[in-house]
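cache lookup: miss for this entity combination. No prior model stored, computing from scratch. Input as submitted by user K.M.:
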Amino acid sequence: MMIVMRTNATQREIKNVIDRVQTYGAQAHLSSGEERTVIGVVGDVRAMPRDEFIRMDGVDRVIPISRPYKLTSREFHPWNTEVRLDGVVFGGPQVVVIAGPCSVEDRAQLLETAHAVREAGAHALRGGAFKPRTSPYTFQGLGEEGLELLAEARAETGLAVVTEAMSPEQVPLVARYADMIQIGARNMQNYALLNAVGASQHPALLKRGLSATVEELLMAAEYILSHGNNNVVLCERGIRTFETATRNTTDINAIPVLKSLTHLPVILDPSHSTGHWEYVEAIARAGIAAGADGLIVEVHAHPEEALSDGGQSLKPERFAALVRQVAAIADAVGRSLAPAKAAVSG
Amino acid sequence: MMIVMRTNATQREIKNVIDRVQTYGAQAHLSSGEERTVIGVVGDVRAMPRDEFIRMDGVDRVIPISRPYKLTSREFHPWNTEVRLDGVVFGGPQVVVIAGPCSVEDRAQLLETAHAVREAGAHALRGGAFKPRTSPYTFQGLGEEGLELLAEARAETGLAVVTEAMSPEQVPLVARYADMIQIGARNMQNYALLNAVGASQHPALLKRGLSATVEELLMAAEYILSHGNNNVVLCERGIRTFETATRNTTDINAIPVLKSLTHLPVILDPSHSTGHWEYVEAIARAGIAAGADGLIVEVHAHPEEALSDGGQSLKPERFAALVRQVAAIADAVGRSLAPAKAAVSG
Amino acid sequence: MMIVMRTNATQREIKNVIDRVQTYGAQAHLSSGEERTVIGVVGDVRAMPRDEFIRMDGVDRVIPISRPYKLTSREFHPWNTEVRLDGVVFGGPQVVVIAGPCSVEDRAQLLETAHAVREAGAHALRGGAFKPRTSPYTFQGLGEEGLELLAEARAETGLAVVTEAMSPEQVPLVARYADMIQIGARNMQNYALLNAVGASQHPALLKRGLSATVEELLMAAEYILSHGNNNVVLCERGIRTFETATRNTTDINAIPVLKSLTHLPVILDPSHSTGHWEYVEAIARAGIAAGADGLIVEVHAHPEEALSDGGQSLKPERFAALVRQVAAIADAVGRSLAPAKAAVSG
Amino acid sequence: MMIVMRTNATQREIKNVIDRVQTYGAQAHLSSGEERTVIGVVGDVRAMPRDEFIRMDGVDRVIPISRPYKLTSREFHPWNTEVRLDGVVFGGPQVVVIAGPCSVEDRAQLLETAHAVREAGAHALRGGAFKPRTSPYTFQGLGEEGLELLAEARAETGLAVVTEAMSPEQVPLVARYADMIQIGARNMQNYALLNAVGASQHPALLKRGLSATVEELLMAAEYILSHGNNNVVLCERGIRTFETATRNTTDINAIPVLKSLTHLPVILDPSHSTGHWEYVEAIARAGIAAGADGLIVEVHAHPEEALSDGGQSLKPERFAALVRQVAAIADAVGRSLAPAKAAVSG
């Protein structure tokens, strides 16, 4: 922590800050320049409320030096974490693809889509049973019935299942049916939910909030890891900016930034990060080219009939083309696509 | 809903769209210009998934015409809603001030601050018992003990109590102690929480998410109102932008925009919307000048010792100055400050 | 300047940084914490390229401590600068209002509007002769003919004239006709233009770019002041954010922030910062309440016929109401509206 | 153009709008729903000021339907435009790379870097002679001397030269030395400059403003094309958002969006769009994977000594690695890297 004094700070004000630092058992290192003095604080800074120093007379700014996250940081854990999910590995040399509909709508729709994405090369199935919707007047999901349908789709296709929990009390239920619990973008800072998922020790897919910084995403992951649950995959899904040509702005920079700051696997959701199916393939390729460990893609057998997000869902044949393109990009960056799941024999 | 066709759309594509519109029992009105055709859809648009039309061949864009919220809209409810709270009225001719610490930290701190804000002219007391914190390593609130302290402060001062619930299961507990349940910015789209607060019929303070649009804020309020609970006060508390000189950017425009779009009361939180105590007075004045129905301000008897948000908290004497300034501005815009709460006689 | 080393930086890497600092004749002050070392650099930092240190092995970040602007800074010039304009003073105790049409369109329109705003209490007349327009197909301004009409309006009404120059070669021409040269938001970082206006020694109105930070605005002003021209008034005119309910987002926080960082006068443009005439009055009041030294407002005698910005222009009678409200707010904050210009006797 | 009436608009107000539409010789098509009436306007909308209708009584909103750009639109020019530059083709099947230092600093630096990037496979040389700098106290470029050095580098290496003009009067000078005139991000809406470059008929590289929408970028290009100059290459170089982990946010979505909206070539500048050399390779790969026609990359033989942007410049050996990676990605998307320039025989 660096305490920057005002240019007109008095010697007495400087001394008061030093004294206060020392009451915490920390040391104060002075750098006195022509314009101003900067006081470096050495010691256990986490116990010192930064606001306390901001409020002292003569203080201009307080600059944190340590990063606020520890367990998620690559500085203290340099090697990659691999998150394993029923034969699927996130964060290893191979690239993984999760695919499926935005919402679980009915049995026929889900099974048709599940079979189609498995045949196209997907490794896991996504589909929402509990849906966070902007409007109270739109489809809110099938709830537990949706979870049962997902379990049936897993039994039929062998695909691992990824689905969202929206509140702490849903966590045990979702954990019973799903291989991986998704925490949606709107809930990235729902701390009660983060704690519940952390305590469950279940693999988690943590989506970045649409206006969360990279640092805030890592702090949200820190909540889960603080329960001893390291099975966390991070997901860039687009941020909110002034640009309206697409639903969100894919923060492609976040892929290499996250890979350098944390040991956790990082995937991209090109469906939400663009909001238009026409752009999903291009951005999926870009994600893998930038170093993402995988993708999560919305696919619907009949997107024009989807109850949610039809505009950004791929039809199965376009998804199959996407998987082929992603495999080519993975090869070009010295990785490969994880092998397709074998059909479940009847 | 307007369906804009591509410039090169064929007659057959146009006909397909019209047919689809009619299957919903709606009517299609054509405007064929030199460049392109636009199809106006008249009928119960809420039953028609917009995405369905976006996916049809020849369609360029689909533009919604109706606003997605109804119960919160001033179009269908032109007169102001007043939310009443133990003698305090939000949304009437008088301006109301809520004040208190960010967190309830201990009995002495809370009572000292509560008495100070009452004497300065505040009408209600704020203070968090459950705290959403970015870092798992910082103070997370006193929980129910904090609620008990708030109840004690109310008994001593006569101030109504406003405090936050962070998850659906906390709602009954918080409702037992608080006059008004706050839904924090991070939880603005926590739909399980919105539904629980709606069902409770308890007065609610709904804070705008830091990257939520005005329309999304109104949609979140719609969740609460859809339970028949109209006791909702909206709160602008700053949005996230590129500017880093302040913690957030006060969207002062949102005050007159919300007052024109909705009948619900609107207040401003100048503490969070600036993040620096030096700017709180100026922005509090601006809020009332722009038409806000009240303020919620962080005040701490000893901000340099606060466990959270000390940098943006006012000391009681500065808060007293703020109240005097706000009263002058209220007069200048033809309103007045609500009368101060009388001291509770011992 | 603070050089933050990586947690795993070697002693050799730290020594290399210290040696490099010393080659500039500066001193390096070490703070070695448990996790990492921070090197404070004391000396003439402006001669040291920050990028040089960022590139050195073992360096994590370089944090500037000094503010990059000097002449505009209140730290080195604590008292307010007053900019004087033919009897109108910006930055003094009184509040000043500039008003007029977006563009000068024709003689009748301009004179009618000029007389109307003078009668309503405006102190200066705005109006564009050279217009920056997003589309090449829209009205681009009358050019020098517009300047002549502005001069005529000044002669008739006694109002000072504020109008925009868009390129360095227009500066002498505009300076001949105008009392104050406006640098528009799109040109805030047009350095050739800033230098030309600086060299002209003419009073300047510098509008904040729609995505410029407060610091960048002050750096742009620094270009003008570096020519010895201190006659600069800063103008907040809204920034670009994700919110689309208004054309721009008024950064009301910028008013007190600028007033604390710089000695230059600061005014607000509520017409551009909202983009809707219905919201202009509320935001004008908010600006003065927040401490602005004045306003610049778009007024058009017949806004429904305006060639540009009709949607945000006030009619004269609404402008007159605005001036009365602003006067009341100015009184409430201990200032007053500057006295109206007397009619020019014929 | 669609004119949306308020829910409570009267028949008389609707009639007034229709009458006004007809005074322009256009037709009004009514869609009257349960809640409100929408009036579609058919005819030459470009002659009708949209603001005029916004101001009419009973009008809620006016929604434009036609895109405001024509010459740049793929709707009216479906095939790709190729921009040719001394043997280098932008917008064809092959991918092109421009590389070089941020600024031309001196002869030795420029020639060393130019030879290095040619050997690594670059097709054109970038380097600024006129530099837009945030601070008046930093290096502002060598001016014409820099242009002469660029010409010398071209003669020595055979690389085409791309360099920036900052004001209209610099255009003839820059055109004399450069194969392509760059219009920088800060000048994207400097209309005098756009007009001068358009009139020059010289090939232009138009960089997106850091807060410009895709539509505004296309409108800026429209200024150049309106002079009959179609030799325009568009460049995404990062936008300004709330995220501070990188200098800007690469709007990777803009690549496929632009490729679908316009026939002009589109390239990416991963140096400015990230601001950190460590991320440049990943984002360069992403750009080509997303469909960009080329890249412009900052390379400096000795970035730790650069007078500007050293922190984001690649060393020649890293640039060579980047070119190899980009070639692999180009192959993976069915394109190829343009062949390297042969050495100029001495």
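stored under new cache key. The first helix of chain A runs from residue 11 to 23.
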